[in-house]
C-alpha cells in the first residue's frame, strides 16, 4: 500500500504540488486524472523517489521513502515496475534485450529462463516476433507495449503507468487498457495509472483521484466520480471548455 | 546602484554552484569506477568508440600537423642557420604540446559531442530515470565507461599522433626539402628525453579524463527537449576545449 502525506514540490519557484495527500490501495488500480501539466507525472515520480519533495512523506508499505538512499532505496525500488510516458526503452538494445534487461541485471536467472519469460511477456503484448528489432524501427504504440512488457517482466508488486495511452489511436488505447486490467487481475499487483484519457481509464480503475492546481480535489470509485457534484470534476470528465477550470 | 553588484554576485554564485556539482560528479564517477561490480563490456565498448573510432581523424590531423610543422620549421630555422634542428623542433613541439592538445581537441569534437548528445537524449527520454527506477546505478552504466575510456584511449591516441606527426615532419623536411634523414632523427634522439615524453603523457591522461567527464556531465544534466540537448552538446564541446587549453598552460608551468 502507498500513502502520500501532504506533499509539496516546487520547480524554479513554481509550486507544482501543494499538499497532496492520497492513499493507494493494495492490489487495486488507482487512476490519477487531471489536466496536462498539473503535476501528475511529478506526483508519480515521487512514489518511486525519482524526485524528492520539498515537504511531505511517501510511505510505501509503511516505510517513508523520502529520506532513503543507497541499498535501502534500491530495496524499495525493487518492488516497482514503471511504464514511462514515451516508453523510455534503451535505444542501443533490441526489443528482446530491453525486456530481458531487468532480469539479466537484477536476477540470477539463467539465460534460458530469461528467454522464456521474455518470450511470454512479448507474446502477452502481441509482439512475439519483434524481439530482434530496435526501438527506432517500431511504432510508438509498439514501443509502449514493449515498455509495458519490460515493466511487468520482474513480476513487481507495484506498477506505475505514466500516461500509457496518450497519443494512441482508440483501438490501441482500448487494447492497452485491457492489457493492464487483465495483467492486474492475473498477478494482483497494485497499479497507479496517470492519465487524461477520461472516461476510458475509468473502465479499468478501482479508484480515481483528480489532481487539480496542486492538490487532490476529489477521490473515489469511478461511478462516484462520474456522478460528482464538484464542477471541476464534472467539467474535466465531460471535457467542456466552459466552467471553473480555465483553459490556459 | 546595487543591481549590477547583485547581478555579478548571482552569476558568481551560480558558477560556483555549477563547479561544485561538476566536482561532485567527477568524484562520484571515480568512486563508482573502483567499486565493483564492473561493467567491463560497456567499458570496452566505449574504449572502442572513443579510441578506435577516432583513429582516422587523429591520423589525418597528425599527418598534416607534422607536415606543416616540418614546412614552417624548416624555413624559420634556416633563417638562423639551424635547419639541422628541424627534427627536435618538430618532435618536441608534438610530444610536449601539440600531440596531447590536438588529440584532446579532436576527441572532444568527435567523441565528446556524441557522448553529450547520447546521454542528453537518454536524459530527456527518461531512459536514465528508467535505470534508476530499476534500482540500477546510471553512473555505473553511462558515465564510468566514458571516463575510463577517456583515461585509456586518449593517451594512446596521443602516442599515435606524435608518431604520425613526426613522420609527417620527416616527409616534408627530408623527402621534400632535402634535409638528411640521419640529421632529422639523430638530432631528435639527442634533444628529446623521457621528461618530455612523460610530461606529454601526463597531459594526455588528464585531458582524456577532462573531456569525457565534462561531456558526460553536460549530457547527464541536460535541460528539457531538443533545445536542451543541443545546448548541452554545444556547451560540452566549448567548455571541454577551453578547459583543455587552460589545463595545458597550468600543467606546462608545472612540468617545465
Range of strand content of chain A: 15-25%
State the shape of chain A.
Answer: globular
From the N-terminal CA to the C-terminal CA of chain A, the straight-line distance is 35 Å
- How many DSSP-defined strands of chain B? 0
Give an overview in words.
With 248 residues, chain A is an alpha/beta fold. Chain A is 35% helix and 25% strand. Chain A has eight helices and ten strands. Chain A has helices at residues 40-47, 70-77, 95-106, 111-124, 140-152, 170-187, 222-226, 231-238, and strands spanning 2-11, 14-24, 29-33, 55-60, 63-64, 80-83, 158-162, 190-195, 207-212, 215-220. In chain A, the strands form two sheets. Chain A has a six-stranded mixed sheet with strand order 6-7-8-3-9-10. In chain A, strands 2-1-4-5 form a four-stranded antiparallel sheet, with helices on one face. The two termini of chain A are 35 Å apart. Chain B is mainly α and 256 residues long. Chain B has one domain. Chain B is 87% helix and 0% strand. Chain B has nine helices and no strands. Chain B has helices spanning 2-34, 40-50, 55-79, 86-124, 127-133, 138-176, 181-191, 194-220, 225-255. Chain B is elongated. The N and C termini of chain B lie far apart (46 Å). The A-B interface holds A 45, 48, 50, 73-75, 77-78, 80, 82, 84-86, 88-91, 101-102, 105-106 and B 121-122, 125-127, 129-130, 132-136.
Question: Can you lay out the helices and strands and say which pair or pack?
Answer:
The complex is a heterodimer of chains A (248) and B (256).
Chain A: E1 2-11, E2 14-24, E3 29-33, H1 40-47, E4 55-60, E5 63-64, H2 70-77, E6 80-83, H3 95-106, H4 111-124, H5 140-152, E7 158-162, H6 170-187, E8 190-195, E9 207-212, E10 215-220, H7 222-226, H8 231-238
Parallel strand pairs in A: 3-8, 3-9, 6-7, 7-8
Antiparallel strand pairs in A: 1-2, 1-4, 4-5, 9-10
Helix pairs in contact in A: 3-4, 3-5, 4-5
Chain B: H1 2-34, H2 40-50, H3 55-79, H4 86-124, H5 127-133, H6 138-176, H7 181-191, H8 194-220, H9 225-255
Helix pairs in contact in B: 1-6, 2-6, 3-4, 3-6, 4-6, 4-7, 4-8, 4-9, 6-8, 8-9
Amino acid at each position: 500500500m502507498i500513502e502520500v502525506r501532504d506533499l509539496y514540490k516546487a520547480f524554479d519557484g513554481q509550486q507544482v504540488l501543494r499538499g497532496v495527500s492520497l492513499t493507494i490501495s493494495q492490489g487495486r488500480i488507482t487512476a490519477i486524472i487531471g489536466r496536462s501539466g498539473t503535476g501528475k507525472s511529478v506526483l508519480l515520480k515521487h512514489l518511486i523517489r525519482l524526485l524528492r519533495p520539498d515537504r511531505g512523506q511517501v510511505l510505501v508499505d509503511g516505510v517513508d521513502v523520502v529520506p532513503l538512499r543507497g541499498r535501502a532505496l534500491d530495496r524499495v525500488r525493487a518492488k516497482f515496475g514503471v511504464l514511462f510516458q514515451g516508453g523510455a526503452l534503451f535505444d542501443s538494445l533490441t526489443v528482446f534485450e530491453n525486456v530481458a534487461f531487468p532480469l539479466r541485471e537484477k536476477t540470477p536467472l539463467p539465460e534460458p529462463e530469461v528467454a522464456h519469460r521474455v518470450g511470454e511477456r512479448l507474446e502477452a503484448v502481441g509482439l512475439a516476433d519483434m524481439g530482434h528489432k530496435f526501438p527506432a524501427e517500431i511504432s510508438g504504440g509498439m514501443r509502449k507495449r514493449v515498455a509495458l512488457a519490460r515493466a511487468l517482466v520482474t513480476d513487481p508488486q507495484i506498477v506505475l503507468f505514466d500516461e500509457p495511452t496518450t497519443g494512441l489511436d482508440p483501438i490501441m488505447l482500448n487494447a492497452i487498457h485491457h492489457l493492464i486490467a487483465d495483467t492486474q487481475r492475473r498477478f494482483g499487483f497494485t497499479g497507479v495509472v496517470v492519465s487524461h484519457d477520461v472516461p476510458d481509464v475509468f473502465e479499468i480503475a478501482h479508484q480515481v483521484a483528480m489532481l487539480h492546481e496542486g492538490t487532490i480535489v476529489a477521490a473515489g470509485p469511478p461511478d462516484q466520480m462520474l456522478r460528482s457534484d464538484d464542477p471541476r470534476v464534472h467539467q474535466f470528465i465531460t471535457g467542456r471548455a466552459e466552467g471553473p477550470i480555465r483553459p490556459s | 546602484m546595487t543591481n549590477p553588484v547583485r547581478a555579478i554576485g548571482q552569476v558568481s554564485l551560480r558558477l560556483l554552484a555549477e563547479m561544485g556539482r561538476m566536482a561532485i560528479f567527477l568524484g562520484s564517477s571515480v568512486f563508482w569506477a573502483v567499486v565493483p561490480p564492473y561493467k567491463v563490456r560497456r567499458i570496452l565498448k566505449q574504449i572502442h568508440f572513443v579510441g578506435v573510432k577516432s583513429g582516422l581523424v587523429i591520423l589525418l590531423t597528425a599527418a598534416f600537423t607534422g607536415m606543416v610543422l616540418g614546412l614552417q620549421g624548416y624555413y624559420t630555422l634556416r633563417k638562423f642557420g639551424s635547419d639541422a634542428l628541424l627534427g627536435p623542433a618538430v618532435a618536441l613541439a608534438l610530444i610536449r604540446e601539440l600531440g596531447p592538445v590536438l588529440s584532446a581537441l579532436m576527441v572532444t569534437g568527435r567523441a565528446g559531442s556524441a557522448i553529450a548528445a547520447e546521454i542528453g537524449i537518454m536524459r530527456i527520454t527518461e531512459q536514465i530515470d528508467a535505470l534508476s527506477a530499476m534500482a540500477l546505478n546510471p553512473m555505473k552504466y553511462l558515465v564510468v565507461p566514458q571516463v575510463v575510456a577517456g583515461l585509456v584511449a586518449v593517451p594512446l591516441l596521443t602516442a599515435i599522433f606524435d608518431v604520425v606527426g613526426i613522420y609527417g615532419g620527416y616527409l616534408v623536411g627530408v623527402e621534400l626539402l632535402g634535409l638528411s634523414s640521419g640529421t632529422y632523427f639523430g638530432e631528435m634522439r639527442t634533444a628529446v628525453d623521457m621528461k618530455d615524453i612523460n610530461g606529454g603523457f601526463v597531459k594526455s591522461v588528464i585531458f582524456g579524463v577532462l573531456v569525457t567527464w565534462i561531456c558526460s556531465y553536460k549530457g547527464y544534466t541536460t535541460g528539457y527537449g531538443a533545445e536542451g540537448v543541443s545546448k548541452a552538446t554545444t556547451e560540452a564541446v566549448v567548455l571541454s576545449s577551453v578547459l583543455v587549453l587552460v589545463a595545458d598552460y597550468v600543467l606546462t608551468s608545472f612540468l617545465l
